[in-house]
Protein backbone atom coordinates (compact mmCIF):
# COMPACT_ATOMS: atom_id res chain seq x y z
CA UNK A 1 0.00 0.00 0.00
CA UNK A 2 1.26 3.47 -0.86
CA UNK A 3 1.41 5.92 2.05
CA UNK A 4 0.42 9.51 1.34
CA UNK A 5 1.67 12.14 3.77
CA UNK A 6 -0.15 15.36 4.56
CA UNK A 7 3.19 17.09 3.98
CA UNK A 8 3.77 15.70 0.48
CA UNK A 9 0.36 15.38 -1.13
CA UNK A 10 -1.55 18.06 -2.92
CA UNK A 11 -5.05 16.70 -3.12
CA UNK A 12 -6.32 13.17 -3.15
CA UNK A 13 -4.55 10.52 -5.20
CA UNK A 14 -6.39 9.76 -8.41
CA UNK A 15 -7.64 6.35 -7.27
CA UNK A 16 -9.43 7.97 -4.30
CA UNK A 17 -11.24 10.46 -6.54
CA UNK A 18 -13.46 7.88 -8.23
CA UNK A 19 -16.64 8.95 -6.42
CA UNK A 20 -15.58 12.61 -6.37
CA UNK A 21 -15.58 12.58 -10.17
CA UNK A 22 -19.11 11.13 -10.11
CA UNK A 23 -20.20 13.62 -7.40
CA UNK A 24 -18.21 16.85 -7.88
CA UNK A 25 -18.13 19.32 -5.02
CA UNK A 26 -20.36 21.90 -6.72
CA UNK A 27 -23.16 19.31 -7.03
CA UNK A 28 -23.25 18.31 -3.36
CA UNK A 29 -25.83 20.80 -2.03
CA UNK A 30 -28.36 19.71 -4.68
CA UNK A 31 -27.83 15.97 -4.20
CA UNK A 32 -30.87 14.23 -2.64
CA UNK A 33 -28.59 12.49 -0.10
CA UNK A 34 -26.91 15.73 1.04
CA UNK A 35 -28.35 15.60 4.55
CA UNK A 36 -28.27 18.07 7.42
CA UNK A 37 -25.71 15.86 9.19
CA UNK A 38 -23.30 16.26 6.26
CA UNK A 39 -23.90 20.01 6.20
CA UNK A 40 -23.25 20.18 9.96
CA UNK A 41 -20.04 18.14 9.64
CA UNK A 42 -18.80 20.45 6.90
CA UNK A 43 -19.88 23.42 9.02
CA UNK A 44 -17.58 22.19 11.79
CA UNK A 45 -14.78 22.05 9.23
CA UNK A 46 -15.46 25.65 8.24
CA UNK A 47 -15.38 26.66 11.91
CA UNK A 48 -11.91 25.07 12.21
CA UNK A 49 -10.72 26.95 9.13
CA UNK A 50 -12.09 30.21 10.54
CA UNK A 51 -10.59 29.70 14.01
CA UNK A 52 -7.24 28.75 12.48
CA UNK A 53 -7.23 31.87 10.29
CA UNK A 54 -8.28 34.08 13.19
CA UNK A 55 -5.51 32.70 15.39
CA UNK A 56 -2.93 33.10 12.65
CA UNK A 57 -4.08 36.68 11.94
CA UNK A 58 -3.96 37.55 15.64
CA UNK A 59 -0.43 36.19 16.04
CA UNK A 60 0.68 38.20 13.03
CA UNK A 61 -0.98 41.33 14.46
CA UNK A 62 0.62 41.06 17.90
CA UNK A 63 4.03 40.29 16.40
CA UNK A 64 3.72 43.39 14.20
CA UNK A 65 2.74 45.53 17.18
CA UNK A 66 -0.77 46.07 15.85
CA UNK A 67 -2.53 44.35 18.78
CA UNK A 68 -2.01 44.88 22.47
CA UNK A 69 -0.43 41.86 24.18
CA UNK A 70 -3.10 41.59 26.90
CA UNK A 71 -5.88 41.56 24.28
CA UNK A 72 -3.97 39.00 22.24
CA UNK A 73 -3.43 36.74 25.26
CA UNK A 74 -7.15 36.80 26.04
CA UNK A 75 -8.13 36.06 22.45
CA UNK A 76 -5.47 33.37 22.13
CA UNK A 77 -6.67 31.70 25.31
CA UNK A 78 -10.29 31.76 24.14
CA UNK A 79 -10.10 31.12 20.40
CA UNK A 80 -6.95 28.97 20.51
CA UNK A 81 -8.57 26.88 23.23
CA UNK A 82 -11.73 26.46 21.15
CA UNK A 83 -9.68 25.45 18.13
CA UNK A 84 -7.60 22.85 19.96
CA UNK A 85 -10.39 21.34 22.07
CA UNK A 86 -12.88 21.13 19.21
CA UNK A 87 -10.35 19.70 16.77
CA UNK A 88 -9.37 16.98 19.24
CA UNK A 89 -13.00 16.09 19.89
CA UNK A 90 -13.96 16.18 16.23
CA UNK A 91 -11.20 14.01 14.84
CA UNK A 92 -11.46 11.62 17.80
CA UNK A 93 -15.13 11.09 16.92
CA UNK A 94 -14.23 10.64 13.25
CA UNK A 95 -11.61 7.99 14.05
CA UNK A 96 -13.76 6.08 16.57
CA UNK A 97 -17.23 6.33 15.02
CA UNK A 98 -17.51 8.03 11.66
CA UNK A 99 -14.74 6.47 9.55
CA UNK A 100 -15.51 2.92 10.80
CA UNK A 101 -19.08 3.46 9.57
CA UNK A 102 -17.82 4.37 6.10
CA UNK A 103 -15.43 1.48 5.66
CA UNK A 104 -18.02 -1.30 5.33
CA UNK A 105 -20.06 0.85 2.94
CA UNK A 106 -17.17 1.14 0.47
CA UNK A 107 -13.93 -0.70 1.33
CA UNK A 108 -12.29 0.64 -1.86
CA UNK A 109 -11.48 3.75 0.14
CA UNK A 110 -10.09 2.14 3.30
CA UNK A 111 -6.55 3.29 2.46
CA UNK A 112 -7.84 6.85 2.13
CA UNK A 113 -9.62 6.67 5.47
CA UNK A 114 -6.47 5.24 7.08
CA UNK A 115 -4.49 8.14 5.64
CA UNK A 116 -6.96 10.61 7.11
CA UNK A 117 -6.59 8.90 10.49
CA UNK A 118 -2.79 9.16 10.13
CA UNK A 119 -3.25 12.87 9.43
CA UNK A 120 -5.02 13.11 12.78
CA UNK A 121 -1.87 11.83 14.51
CA UNK A 122 0.18 14.53 12.79
CA UNK A 123 -2.49 17.05 13.77
CA UNK A 124 -2.22 15.95 17.41
CA UNK A 125 1.52 16.64 17.35
CA UNK A 126 0.99 20.01 15.69
CA UNK A 127 -1.69 20.99 18.21
CA UNK A 128 0.52 19.89 21.10
CA UNK A 129 3.34 22.20 19.93
CA UNK A 130 0.87 25.02 19.46
CA UNK A 131 -0.71 24.49 22.89
CA UNK A 132 2.65 24.44 24.71
CA UNK A 133 3.79 27.65 23.07
CA UNK A 134 0.38 29.37 23.37
CA UNK A 135 0.25 28.55 27.09
CA UNK A 136 3.72 30.00 27.47
CA UNK A 137 2.67 33.20 25.65
CA UNK A 138 -0.40 33.60 27.88
CA UNK A 139 1.56 32.93 31.10
CA UNK A 140 4.42 35.25 30.14
CA UNK A 141 2.00 38.03 29.21
CA UNK A 142 1.52 38.50 32.97
CA UNK A 143 5.19 38.11 33.87
CA UNK A 144 7.47 39.33 31.10
CA UNK A 145 5.98 41.19 28.15
CA UNK A 146 9.16 41.10 26.05
CA UNK A 147 9.50 37.31 26.43
CA UNK A 148 5.82 36.83 25.73
CA UNK A 149 6.10 38.83 22.50
CA UNK A 150 9.15 36.80 21.47
CA UNK A 151 7.20 33.57 22.05
CA UNK A 152 4.26 35.04 20.11
CA UNK A 153 6.55 35.55 17.11
CA UNK A 154 7.40 31.84 17.23
CA UNK A 155 3.74 31.00 17.74
CA UNK A 156 3.10 32.62 14.38
CA UNK A 157 4.86 29.66 12.71
CA UNK A 158 2.79 27.17 14.71
CA UNK A 159 -0.47 28.94 13.85
CA UNK A 160 0.49 29.07 10.16
CA UNK A 161 1.30 25.34 10.26
CA UNK A 162 -2.16 24.59 11.65
CA UNK A 163 -3.83 26.73 8.98
CA UNK A 164 -1.89 25.03 6.16
CA UNK A 165 -2.56 21.59 7.64
CA UNK A 166 -6.28 22.23 7.98
CA UNK A 167 -6.58 23.60 4.45
CA UNK A 168 -5.16 20.42 2.94
CA UNK A 169 -6.58 17.87 5.39
CA UNK A 170 -10.14 19.17 5.55
CA UNK A 171 -10.37 19.48 1.76
CA UNK A 172 -9.06 15.91 1.36
CA UNK A 173 -11.42 14.64 4.04
CA UNK A 174 -14.46 16.27 2.45
CA UNK A 175 -13.47 15.19 -1.07
CA UNK A 176 -13.13 11.58 0.05
CA UNK A 177 -15.96 11.26 2.59
CA UNK A 178 -18.84 13.31 1.16
CA UNK A 179 -18.96 11.40 -2.14
CA UNK A 180 -19.07 8.11 -0.19
CA UNK A 181 -21.96 9.44 1.91
CA UNK A 182 -23.83 10.70 -1.14
CA UNK A 183 -23.21 7.62 -3.28
CA UNK A 184 -24.35 5.18 -0.59
CA UNK A 185 -27.05 7.35 0.98
CA UNK A 186 -25.40 7.27 4.39
CA UNK A 187 -26.47 9.73 7.09
CA UNK A 188 -29.34 10.96 4.94
TrEMBL record:
- An example Pfam family from this entry, by short name, is Hemerythrin
Q: Please give the Gene3D superfamilies that the UniProt record associates with this protein.
A: nmb1532 protein domain like (1.20.120.520)
Tell me the superkingdom of the source: Bacteria
Domain (Hemerythrin-like): residue spans on this chain: 38-181
Spell out the protein name for this chain. Answer: Hemerythrin-like domain-containing protein
Organism the protein comes from: Pseudoruegeria aquimaris
Amino acid sequence: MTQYSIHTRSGLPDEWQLLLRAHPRDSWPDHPNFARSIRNWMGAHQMFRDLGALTEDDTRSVAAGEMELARFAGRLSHFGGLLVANLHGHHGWEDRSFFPELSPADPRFDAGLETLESDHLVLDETLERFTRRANRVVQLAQLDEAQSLEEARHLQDDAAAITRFLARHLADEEDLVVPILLHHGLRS
